[in-house]
């Protein structure tokens, strides 16, 4: 099968490399973080491992939001909107767990 | 938008917008407003899962042990791959590489389809193990721990809702791919690919949360 990259000019290939660098690095970072969580979930090395697992998930979510969804490059109003969503989620979790954990 | 657009790629201004920049920002803000409502919907389900764990730890762990951990992990890999192909489609759209963009969009839809096939197999295995407490014709495997029913029912609501979003996403993606393959699409509607990409990444984000909350932390 013919390699489609072989038909590209050198400047096209350079542009492709430049444009896809961030998505590919994000992809590799997400896979690595997932591998950490799957390993922890499969081996359960200590009792409080869920804290580490949720920490890893938080990093994965931040990566998707900021890099894949490009929030980091958006204007302030859109950054505010995306942040507000998680602020409301924090209120939802905070108020509910205050009740359940204090019973 | 992080990368500049190639020549001949852009958005046709609708008359009610002052500028193309305003039009692009309005579209992005609109999809984010909707994604926030979706985030709150799924967050409520994840919160209930957490409360179930706090209130009934033994029953939740017993139910979670029946979940297909490795299928869930494989499906997470599949969705992370689909996020990469969607990001590639967005970059190709900005570069004006229409054919590559269409192929990346088709690859994204195919990976979404693979996720649903694996999820379907997982549901079949659950059915086979009598892990569907809502079916009166098949006695629930954990009938001796009634609280397990709460977690398992929640698992089905959350994962079916996610699968519904994914199915809708695949249908929209295939429809948009059909339109995006036509000549002149990238000169008029390039931002459609970016807006749709936000939705696809969001579906990925929800599963990135669902997998650990349902499958991993309850083991």
Automatic annotation (TrEMBL), chain A:
The chain crosses the membrane at residues 51-68, 80-102. The keyword Membrane applies. Keywords: Membrane, Transmembrane, Transmembrane helix. It comes from the Bacteria. This is Oxidase. The lineage of its organism: Bacteria, Pseudomonadati, Pseudomonadota, Alphaproteobacteria, Hyphomicrobiales.
TrEMBL record, chain B:
The keyword Transmembrane applies. Residues 29-219 form the Heme-copper oxidase subunit III family profile domain. InterPro entries: Cyt_c/ubiquinol_Oxase_su3, Cyt_c_oxidase-like_su3, Cyt_c_oxidase_su3-like_sf, Cyt_c_oxidase_su3_a-hlx. The keyword Transmembrane helix applies. It is a multi-pass membrane protein. The chain crosses the membrane at residues 29-49, 69-90, 102-121, 154-175, 196-217. Keywords: Membrane, Transmembrane, Transmembrane helix. It comes from Methylobacterium longum. Belongs to the cytochrome c oxidase subunit 3 family. It holds the Pfam family COX3. This is Cytochrome c oxidase subunit 3. Its main location: membrane. It is found in: Cell membrane; Membrane.
